[in-house]
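USER: Write out one fold?

ASSISTANT:
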Amino acid sequence: MQVKLLSGALGAEIRGVDLKDASEKNFEVINNLLLEHKVIFFRNQNISPEEQLALAAHFGPIERHAYVKGLDQYPEIVRIIKKPNEKNQWGENWHSDVSYNLKPTKAVILKSIKIPPVGGDTMFANMELAWETLDEKIKDKIKGKKALHSSLGAEFFVDNYEGMEGNGNHDEYSNEHPIVRTHPDTGKKILFVNWTYTKNIVGMDKKESDEILSKIFKHQARLDLTCRFQWTENAVAIWDNRSVQHYAIADFFPGRGLGYERIMDRIAIQGDSPH
């Protein structure tokens, strides 16, 4: 097995591991790599939907997305499609998946089906490192506090994408989570707010809350906290959604002469309530 680091902050490309191997021994290797590197990448993994689901099941119960319809034959799999004529794509902001849920996603397994010849990379940011490097004055202000995460607007978001379909649910979900959560497996502290779903700091006036969150969001996107993955077809990314945020870069569209299609299959594993 070979491990190639993607940056000094997080991320590793793994060679010599076959994701078709559904054994407990192989999963232990994968899970240990995930906890160490927070996001791991595997190329040339022509796994079937059944094999992707079998791998996901090792991590825990598989969750259904609140708003997006899954594949007819595999409803746990969300197929993320950007059509050649579209400018935007799903996930093109810094976020932690479904942080508005009472139990936000534990991990995500994303497999590439069709990739543009240029563009369409995904960036990831290390939220453990974001906490460690956060200004001490901000740390003092948010100590012991919670933030409100809401899906407001997300219930209609999928309607903006030609190749994707909502599941008919338009309910709003909101939950309060600790701004600094503790990783249940490593015990590490994690800065658990994000630009997309975090609305305000509970118990703080709007002006101060907005100012602090703005500073935190800017800090979380520092390039020295990130890695960037250039996709190829049949590549698989697995990330710890508790420890990282991600950003799908939509830099390939007709206005730049890059009208290409991008298709990905996503499976998410249910997490626990942050504490």
The radius of gyration is 18 Å. The chain has six helices and 16 strands.
